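Reader question, answered in our methods column.
A reader sent in the components of a multi-part assembly and asked whether the whole thing could be modeled at once rather than chain by chain. We filled in our standard form and ran it. Here is what they sent:
COMPLEX SIZE: two components
ENTRIES:
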Amino acid sequence: MISLRYIPLILKQLYRRPARSGLTLLGVATAMFLYYAVQAMHEGVQAATEANAEDTTLVVYRENRYCPFTSRLPEDYGRRIANLPGVESVIPMQIVVNNCRASLDVVTFRGVPPEDFQSGMMKDLSITEGSLSDWKRRGDGALVGNRLAERRGLKIGDRINLGGITVTVAAIITSPHPQDQNVAYTHLEFIQRSAGNADGVVTQFNVKIQDPGELDAVAASIDDLFREAQQPTTTWSEKAFTARAASDLVEIVGFARLVGWGALVAVFALVANAIILSVQERVKEHAVLQTLGFHNGLLAKLIVAEGVFVSLAGGVLGLAASAAVLSLGTYSFSVEGLSVNLEAGAVTVVAGLLTSCVIGVLAGLFPAWQASRQEIAACFRAV
Amino acid sequence: MAFIECRNLTRTYTRGTNAITPLDDLDLDIEEGMFLSLMGPSGSGKTTLLNLIAGIDRPTSGSLTIDGHNIANSSKSELAAWRSEYIGYIFQLYNLVPVLTAYENVELPLLLHGLTRKERHRKVSAALDLVGIADRHDHYPRQLSGGQEQRVAIARAIVTDPRIIVADEPTGDLDKSSARAILDLMQSINRDLGRTLIMVTHDPHAAEWAQKTLHLEKGRLVEQDVPQSTTAGAT
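And here is the structure of the entire assembly that came back:
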């Protein structure tokens, strides 16, 4: 560590070339912005797809179908599934998305029977505005996820038309599950009619089971039940179902992370270059400092500290900007009606700051080593 | 034993394939509190001797004992600590840090001494007062004349109250009147503060301010002068 009394000296040295230091700082900020955004994508995919031991939700889909437009199951499958041992509740669900493009603002409608929804899904949700009774009473009512409401600026009573379906916002809900934060829950019948689907047909069933340890066994028994039916099923845990749907996204995020790491390497080179240039033009000045009694180790520390300061300042700027943009934008990817939020936690911010520090230290090490090896008299002779 | 004692002091360095010996088997004693000037043609070894005494270079052979310590055997970090206590260095081209004000330049060596901000302020103000530049304390080097810059450099050299002040052609870049003022100042520092002052110069007039002048040639001592009056240059 370096004593605080040297901080003004370090800052003044950085301000010696304001354009160079400013551009270096901007470069670090840009890279850290990218780093945070990529990490947010990565964490969003993890949150949406990583199973944990407490998961109790299964998704029953049409066998060999991979998107909500082609998965069509008879609604009365729900009754038969509910009779299987280990099943707590079954909710038939019709999924409609407002557009088929890749977008950060795809709206997913989930049509569910109001009574089933209240008994089967409400325990993970909480209503922050509006009321559940309003939603149950209105045929066109929608329970809107908080991130969707923030992104679209929706308020209670707003009538909105999304992809040809007009709904009225009856309540805004929050949930720890990413899938509930970006959807609009409507009445099943309403969405079936609005989307032009036949009554009695749904996209999937969400099945709550009693014992998390029985997840695979119950899934197998559901698929066995309909193995010989005209519409056979495939059943996954909810997280596995999301992971399958988001597998393309996982690859893209994996590639984006490579780009993010590349940006960090570029930042290292940028900061190192700035510090090396700075040290090279101060050879004589360093010799003067040594003449005054600054020992080699202290000189090296001062140079490394310059790297850390510029890198950390850029890191703070980039991370703050990225966190603000992602927070205000409440972005989420949508794949086959499933949502992946772009959000990262405090751990990512701390990791980003530490990464900035490490980059600063590494970038300063070589020029610091070079400067500390100089012979004082030789520096005066050479200049 | 003299305050500064050089015995068989030799410094050789290589430039390309050539070995150069600017200082060759020199013997010299300097008493504490003396104002000494070193003269001689370029390459005679004046600056090399000054750098060895200042502890910023190390002899190839021989011994250099200052205040009883043979600094020729000290490690780099020991020498750095020793310099901060014993040496104040005045350069020909001032060598102030351009991004620091006059005050901050003078404060630099004090940062190594673990003093409080208040103590540093007291010492810096006293040093700036002594060299007559207190009213320019917040000026950057680019805002000062050559003579003023050299005054700041002198304040930086004396602020830690070192036992030895070395000056490498301190008036070499100044006009006559500024040079005279700087030499007056150095003489008063030597006389009033009792500090040992060793000055390298090409200028015989500047050398007249010193109590004693040594002439070097090809790395060897060839002549010693003691002026009739040590204030001759000032009259």
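What stands out: The mean pLDDT of chain A is 88. Chain A has 15 helices and 14 strands.
Send us your own complexes using the same form.
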